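Lab notes, practical 5.
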Amino acid sequence: MTLKSVIGFGKYPDYRIDDFFKLNLTWELVNMYYNLQSISFTDDVLDALMITEERRIAKPGKSKHAYHEFKKAIYQDMKASQDDNQVMGLAMMRKKAEKESNLVRSFKEVSKQNNMNRVQRLGVKK
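Output from the prediction step:
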């Protein structure tokens, strides 16, 4: 299956493979790969699932033994890549917040000047 493939069965019959990645349901795909006989993925999907060459099994076929053997290593690899993404996300959030605070600060300064001008105009008109 590729990223555009539709699952077509189970709890997520209408989901595509890339929907699982967007919704952080990648562990469901790992379970499908090891525990369902006829489900196989392309190399790019397997790499994204942290299933390296050593962790792959012969398809068609399933292997609960391989699943139990590799699940801890796969989970740790997924967690490490997720932490990297979160760090990048936090950096972008900080930049955005800083930009917004600068905009608010400049708006306040402009508003103060506008109020001072308005007050002066009101004072002139008697």
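Observations recorded by the TA: The chain has a mean pLDDT of 81. Residues 117 and 123 are 10 Å apart (CA to CA).
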